Amino acid sequence: MTTAQGRTGRRAGPGRAPQTEIVVDGDSVQAVDGISLAAVLVGERRWSLRRNPVGGDLRGPFCGMGVCFECEVTVDGRPGVRACITKIYAGMRVETATEGEAPHDR
Fold first, then answer.
1. Which of 20, 62, 77, 104 lies at a C-alpha separation of 20 to 30 Å from 90?
2. pTM above 0.85, yes or no
3. pLDDT per position in the chain (106 positions), as tens?
4. In angstroms, rounded to a whole number, what is the distance separating the alpha carbons of residues 76 and 28?
5. CA atoms of 23 and 76, how far apart (whole Å)
6. Do strands 50-51 and 11-12 pair parallel, antiparallel, or not at all (unpaired)?
């Protein structure tokens, strides 16, 4: 029986992919090493990732290939990162912009 070791140092057994830990809005999240950030967020049931700058409506992944910009989040302090074309890595810190009210709700 062979095992592999992921970047986080966890051992992966047969049938289990190496896991990576990232932080999303302050919460620790375990995910399969190397998958897209959008896949991780949707897997965590976080469909709303940002607010539309004009109307304030919640937005989330749509095209899944980096064209629509609906999945932009802040990664390690850098805003405007498209989650659908960004692979996760150990220690990644992600912030979504879904808190607060929309401008038209005021």
1. 62
2. no
3. 334 444 444 555 567 889 999 999 999 999 999 999 999 999 999 999 999 989 999 999 999 999 999 999 999 999 999 999 999 999 999 999 877 655 555 4
4. 14
5. 10
6. unpaired
Helices (H) and strands (E) in the chain, counts: 1, 9
Smallest Cα–Cα separation from 55: which of 101, 4, 13? 101
Distances in Å between the Cα of 25 and the Cα atoms of 21, 67, 104 are 13, 24, 24
| CA distance readout (Å), 56 to 23, 53, 101 | 25, 6, 8
Tokens of 68: 């629509």
Per-residue DSSP letters for 61-80?
Answer: --SSSSSS-TTEEEETTEEE
